[in-house]
Amino acid sequence: MSAAGTKTFAAVDLGASSGRVMTGRVGPDTLRLTETHRFPNRPVHLPEGLRWDILGLYGGVLDGLRAAGPVDSLGIDSWAVDYGLLAADGSLLGNPVHYRDRRTEGVAEQVWATVPPDDLYRATGIQYAPFNTLYQLVAAQGTPQLTAACHLLLIPDLIAYWLTGELGTELTNASTTQLIDAHTGDWNRPLADRLGIDLALFAPLRRPGDPAGTLLPAVQERTGLPGPVPVTAVGSHDTASAVAAVPAGRGERFAYLCTGTWSLAGLELDAPVTTGASRAANFTNELGIDGTVRFLRNIMGLWLLQECMRTWELTDVTPLLADAARMPALRYVVDAAAPEFLTPGDMPGRIAAACRGVGGPVPRTPGEITRCVLDSLALAHRRAIREAQHLADREVDVVHLVGGGARNALLCQLTADACGVPVIAGPAEAAALGNVLVQARAHGLPGDLASTRELIARTQPLTRYEPSGDPTAWEAAARRAEDARPLPA
After folding, report:
1. Strands (E), 306-353
2. What's the confidence (pLDDT) of residue 447?
3. Alpha-carbon torsion angle 165, 58, 341, 344, nearest 10
4. How far apart, in Å, are the Cα atoms of 447 and each of 72, 139, 234?
5. What is the spatial distance between Cα 44 and Cα 55, in angstroms, rounded to a whole number?
6. Cα angle value 321/327/330 (rounded, 5°)
7. How large is the greatest C-alpha to C-alpha distance in the chain, in angstroms?
8. What are the residues facing 231 on neighbouring strands?
9. Catalytic residue among 13, 101, 157, 238
10. pTM higher than 0.70 for the full model?
11. Which listed site, 185, 300, 337, 431, has its alpha carbon 20 to 30 Å from 223?
């Protein structure tokens, strides 16, 4: 299939706004990634709420595998927390609910009446987010679909099931459900029992690198792939795969920023941090590759700009970034993690209202609003990375910014200015690279996590941004953003 010493792997990488199938050629000194097919991910507003078009996504996956050609293995990663329900015969019971659907509003308070927030955090180490799988399942209790369900599969495991006919639950994604014990890496059965959640719905746990089945003959026929084609469990939460692709050197003291629809800012640790201070700061402890812990905070990310562009009916971000670069720095600031920005809708209006609410100047033009988004994201990155260092007692010398935001030079420079340390941007396709490299390790290409990161650093284009500007201006803007931030629950 590949040249001597190299193998070819397909990475199915499903993001919240688009999906893609990438092929990676991997050898001891080779790492080449090629996009074979990209397709939109368009959620659908139905009378009952916001749903994923999972059948459209699966069709895009099949088209991508057909375009990929012969591969030695394939792996699947996607966004976290959402799931599909299967009947006893394996058929899908409706389109999966989108995490931005409103069904979980008020559910957290119901859960906390049974399991107080401190107890919940100590048990799982997972941050409060209204869309966590735990809250989704409590919201779904008593519904016909959940009552009829025999199996629950997280999104990448659902795609893997359709490809192979085998059931499994990959651990890095399972850790985001808020039902995994942060210390043991296994299901927290006492917690699930207290909340009436049936863990028997979940398939057996898999870990990155485990076999996840072989393509079904019908799938091979539709894709034209010569078989057998193994499917390999990867870090199926896309952030786990992206963090595995951070090109940090051995012993480097680094923070990471996985940027795209969301910004995930944090540290890679050996053990979870489940203190009261960490809960109050809303940091999460998700499981990563090779037993690592992703200690991070979720920030709204470029969703803010994506939703603005949807309202403005614009598709090209380049003119907006050029206008934003000409705008005064830090004039408009909002809390980029504020819950009012979570749902779809009039994002420019909500950003203007947030500025008005703290008595600041109000951005009105697309360029002004874009600059507000980027400055606010840089401030949120700054705050998260500084708090992560304090909570974990770990200093950093550099920030590695990976994912789609690595292509946004203005955001990268603003993040370096805000954090006061260099930012190394790239790779942009970090999730796909991490996906490919976990497969490569599982299929005979040697190397530990540090070695795979060195391979990325040697082979992928990276850009370094040095901090510049006036640090006191960022300090003042951070205080303004603090004024806009609600007290933690």
Report:
1. none
2. 81
3. -130
4. 18, 43, 16
5. 12
6. 105
7. 64
8. 74
9. 238
10. yes
11. 431
